[in-house]
Every structure is written in C-alpha cells, then in structure tokens.
Write a structure and sequence with these properties.
Layout: H1 2-14, H2 21-38, H3 46-55, E1 58-62, E2 71-75
Antiparallel strand pairs: 1-2
Helix pairs in contact: 2-3
Length: 81
C-alpha cells in the first residue's frame, strides 16, 4: 500500500502537464500572428514562418503566478539558455 502511494506522489511531481490540443493550436496560431507582425517578410512565406516558429522552442509550463492561465507557454530564443 505504501509503495503504491509513494509511486503516485513521485509520478505527480515528475510528469509534465498535459497540454490540450486546442490550447496548443491556439498558442501556435497566436505566436505565428505575432511573428508576421514583427517580421512582415514572413507574411507570404509559410515555410519560412513555420521555420521561424520551430526555432523559438516553445515550452509549456503550469501557470503558478497570480493572474496566469492554467498553462503558460515560454519561448526559448535560440542562442539564449
């Protein structure tokens, strides 16, 4: 009994939060819209827009601050760690 309880607690703290597919698509669309605003040259080039989106390295994390959504996507800019 104790081993099962500890295993569930350990898994709860180790697993990444599941991101709903609709939330992921909404975030992707919003970020691509922002990229087109910042870089107008990407407007008519879907392949370059997708490459720019992939280069950002989105990372989902649970929102834990006051006023944040349940899931927050952090951008990792290439070259910065």
């Amino acid at each position: 009994m104790k081993a099962g309880m500890f295993e569930r607690i350990r898994r709860a703290f180790q697993s990444q939060p599941a991101v709903h597919p609709i939330e992921g698509r909404m975030a992707k669309r919003w970020i691509k819209q922002r990229l087109v605003v910042v870089f107008p040259g990407l407007r008519n080039d879907p392949r370059a827009l997708e490459a720019a989106y992939q280069a950002l390295s989105l990372t989902p994390r649970p929102g834990d601050e006051e006023g944040e959504a349940e899931t927050v996507f952090e951008l990792t800019i290439p070259g910065e760690q």
